[in-house]
Amino acid sequence: MAKNTICLWYDKDAEAAANFYVETFPDSAMGAAIRAPGNYPEGKQGDVLVVEFTVAGISCVGLNGGPVFKHNEAFSFQIYTEDQEETDRYWNAIVGNGGQESECGWCKDKWGVSWQITPRILMDALREGGDQAKRAFDAMMTMKKIDVAAIDAARHG
Fold it and tell me: Which residues are in the PhnB-like domain (predicted)?
């Protein structure tokens, strides 16, 4: 287990979420599922309390903490993509599996975790600055899923 890990709070679906992330993103793996050693107010002995997993190289823990806390956009995974095919694959996996679209490359999975599916070409344009960054940014502001060709066209004027 990593010294530093991200802990994500779920109602009772941490294991299902972790399995989805592992199936969807490369450099991902399941770890241990830690089960309740006895009954407790929200569940029973043997229920999964915590699941350890890695998503896109990031060490995570999914905690089945109950319905008290919900995910929001204050936390998101940002996944950099190389082309439209990769962008579409991740976007469609998240949105097509009960998730929802948002703006500017953001979407949420069915558990409420926010994802930024971000083509590198967009970040390259923004890093470059100047007119190219402004054109790419303006184009991005009109999009839900990022259109790589449109960003490239805007970037080069």
Answer: 3-118
